[in-house]
Amino acid sequence: QVQLVESGGGLVQAGDSLRLSCAASGRTFSSYAMGWFRQAPGKEREFVGGISRIGSVTRYADSVKGRFTISRVNAKNTVYLQMNSLKPEDTAVYYCAANEERRSFSVTSTLTDYDYWGQGTQVTVSS
């Protein structure tokens, strides 16, 4: 089992940048592909991006491609979401999630593939 704690959310203006962190504890962090999801009020939780177990493969939703970057430092048990050029429509609660994945280069965008979730961190982008 792994525990996940997100941090770094806040209130920013459109065009600003923000970096979210997700710290993991428990089982070996490198056993998990990691994903970031978000949920806006009244909407379903959606995939933002993900990174493979060793960080060699990343995958992004079209809505954030070119603006958001996911990275991980396995030695620190941490995954990051760098968000640039933020837009009001990026406003949501952001969650990190862990997918116990045997394949080193696999990243899934399917919410139900993820086994563990953090509590979420609020990101609000004002116009």
Residue windows where pLDDT falls under 50 for at least 5 positions: none
Radius of gyration from CA coordinates: 13 Å
Number of strands: 11
- Structural category: mainly beta
Instruction: Give the % helix.
Output: under 10%
Q: Can you write the helix and strand succession as a string?
A: EEEEEEEEEEE
Main pleated-sheet profile: 7 strands, mixed
Mean pLDDT: 96
Strand content: over 45%
Taken from the alpha-carbon principal axes, the silhouette is globular
Word description of this protein:
The structure is a single chain. This protein has strands spanning 2-7, 10-13, 18-26, 32-39, 46-51, 58-60, 68-73, 78-83, 92-100, 116-117, 121-126. A hairpin with a 4-residue loop joins strand 7 and strand 8. It contains no helices and eleven strands. It is mainly β and 127 residues long. The strands form two sheets. Strands 2, 4, 5, 6, 9, 10 and 11 form a seven-stranded mixed β-sheet that branches.
Compose a concise summary of this entry:
The protein is an all-beta fold.
What are its keywords?
single chain; 127 residues; mainly beta; 7-stranded mixed sheet; 4-stranded antiparallel sheet
